[in-house]
Automatic annotation (TrEMBL):
<feature type="transmembrane region" description="Helical">
    <location>
        <begin position="126"/>
        <end position="149"/>
    </location>
</feature>
<feature type="region of interest" description="Disordered">
    <location>
        <begin position="709"/>
        <end position="728"/>
    </location>
</feature>
<keyword id="KW-1133">Transmembrane helix</keyword>
<dbReference type="InterPro" id="IPR050835">
    <property type="entry name" value="ABC_transporter_sub-D"/>
</dbReference>
<dbReference type="InterPro" id="IPR003593">
    <property type="entry name" value="AAA+_ATPase"/>
</dbReference>
<feature type="domain" description="ABC transmembrane type-1">
    <location>
        <begin position="90"/>
        <end position="332"/>
    </location>
</feature>
<comment type="similarity">
    <text>Belongs to the ABC transporter superfamily. ABCD family. Peroxisomal fatty acyl CoA transporter (TC 3.A.1.203) subfamily.</text>
</comment>
<dbReference type="InterPro" id="IPR003439">
    <property type="entry name" value="ABC_transporter-like_ATP-bd"/>
</dbReference>
<dbReference type="GO" id="GO:0140359">
    <property type="term" value="F:ABC-type transporter activity"/>
</dbReference>
<dbReference type="GO" id="GO:0016887">
    <property type="term" value="F:ATP hydrolysis activity"/>
</dbReference>
<dbReference type="InterPro" id="IPR036640">
    <property type="entry name" value="ABC1_TM_sf"/>
</dbReference>
<dbReference type="InterPro" id="IPR011527">
    <property type="entry name" value="ABC1_TM_dom"/>
</dbReference>
<protein>
    <recommendedName>
        <fullName>ATP-binding cassette sub-family D member 2</fullName>
    </recommendedName>
</protein>
<feature type="domain" description="ABC transporter">
    <location>
        <begin position="464"/>
        <end position="688"/>
    </location>
</feature>
<dbReference type="GO" id="GO:0005524">
    <property type="term" value="F:ATP binding"/>
</dbReference>
<keyword id="KW-0547">Nucleotide-binding</keyword>
<keyword id="KW-0472">Membrane</keyword>
Amino acid sequence: MYSLRSRRAKILLFSSSFAVIAYLIRRYRRSALLKKRRALVISKESRTTDASSPSSPIRNALNKQFYHQLRALIRILIPNVKSDSFALLILHLTTLITRTFLSIYIAHLDGAIVKSLVQRNPRQFFRTICTFIGVAVPASFINSSIRFIESKLSLALRTRLTQHAYEAYFKNQTYYRVTNLDSRLLTPDQNLTDDIETFTSTLTHLFSHLTKPFFDIAVISWSLIAMVRQRATARGLKEVPVMTMIVFLITFTALRKLSPRFGRLVSEEARRRGILRFAHTRVIANAEEIAFFDGHQVEKNWVLKLYDQLREQTNLIIKKKLWFIMLEQFLMKYFWHASGMMFIAIPFLTYDGPPETDDPVGDPLGISARTEAFTVSKNLLTSGADALERIISSYKEIAELAGHTDRVYTMLHVFDDCANAHYQRNLVTTDENHDEHSSSVVAKKKVAINQRAEGKIIESDEDIIAEDVPIITPNGDVIVESLSLKITPAMHVLITGPNGCGKSSFFRIVRGLWPVYSGRLHRPDPSSFFLIPQRPYMCPGTLRDQIIYPHTVANAFVDDTKLMEILDNVELKYIVQREGGLSAERDWKDILSGGEKQRLGLARIFYHRPRYALLDECTSAVSIDVEGKIYERAKELGISLLTITHRPSLWAYHTHLLQFNGDGRWTFEILNTEKLLTLQGEKERLETQLAGIPKIQQRLNELCQLLGDDTTAPTTREDQDHEGSNDY
């Protein structure tokens, strides 16, 4: 039987050693290949990304960049010692320390229980059991409190970081700039929700799993040293600490050198998960268009492609963890267990003093005392080994925390850059080989926009004055190289031109959504402008909220009677009764028709009464008679109208014309309505006449065939000239 057990032990030891050696050889070969390719990879990354940028990949979890990012985030999470998060942190630390002392006391109770069994002392045994059960009640409460306070601390940190992020996100129109003017954050919605939650929960969990083990090791080491000192003739007080440090250094060095880069892997997995979520959001937002075109197969293939990319990354992490966890378990479970038994055995085997016993008659050799000391030492050493294991295995969690820290810090860094008009965007090349008769405009020039806007914005009293201001898209396309004009509140400007010529872009620059890269722009305060787009935004809430948006009921400056008058100005008074009053809550985006939504959007300018109303095709679904009444009432209130439209019916309500030609040229002049209407009528007549020519030509050809005449009438003036020359 003994030989069989010995053979099994040898086979197990040989197989384990072979697996570890195979893993080490595999890691060595892989590291050698990586060293050969490192120069090429570094040069490639330096061309595509800025190594000093906070958004660059994490090369190493424990580097200066990680500490800098984490320190900056901790200042946000715990701003001062009077904050709620700091109080929860101290309370959490107190419970962890209390749990350590309880663990040591329970270890001594285990030793006392074993000692009473060896001594066959029933009274002492039951007394110790009762003490153990009595201690178990506060110990259970402490264990539950640790989890409870950890969850509360995580929630408090998440709340503070979320509030800080929202404050930055909704400041200086950052929510618009980060998606339209900057391309560093692909999924800001995920950064603001999942990334913050994951970062705070990981940070709190890591604090618990690092603070308590360090304190456990300190207290347990002190307890073991005290036990060894009680046996003055025993050895181990010097040898055991040295051997412990050697085992620790071997384990830590092996795990650190052979650990995969979990920070980079986790960060990439989170990025791909965010892209997949964004794809689902895009399908939901455009579900009607996709259904009309039966484009489900294309969307399905795209979503599956993104999922396959996420699956490949997750599989890569799983494979990396397989070999790493195997090495981790071998070192910190079996290797440490054998080492721990050796450490415990040294003081007992080297002790040559008199037997220690409290029962010279029943136990003259002190077996019960040695058994008690061995049990206490084993429990303490096991607890210390668990603590040391958590510290070493936390390297992997720190690497994962580095990935989450990088994403959250990058998000806040990009928010700060966008708030200060510093953008970085990957330029998208556009196809310039368009049909020459196309009405769309393609920019022929591009500029590098990864720089700060150097134009000056000067706040004026009333006028809008542009001095050599270019119109440049977020992609770097130069639509207009230089725009210089002056608009006063007494003007009503009609803005026309082909698609993509800069009409809406002019509104974005005047309102401050797009940066001014050069020149000077004089404009009133942004509150003097109010934009009504072709598709007005319907906010969640009541009908009253739709009219006063972006105000709320708390800061509304008119009563319901005035709101009814406003609705009457846009011919929408009937929907109050139809929908159940101004306080009715509906999904207004789906309930109202296109014309009703446009008129409800126009009602907002009668409520806010801005100095300038920026109207971007906002009456395309409104009848001409209602449209005219709305424009007349707006002019009576002294609102200056800047209108983008293709309707000739609105020309009569404007005094000036800003026309973009589509090739970078523009004109700004007084609007001659009668002349434009005359030219428009002549254009329509010519278009009607030209539209009938193909039908006349087709009928003439049919008559020639019926009459047997082989000749056909010439279709163009060139054909007529050619036939005339043949007559001669």
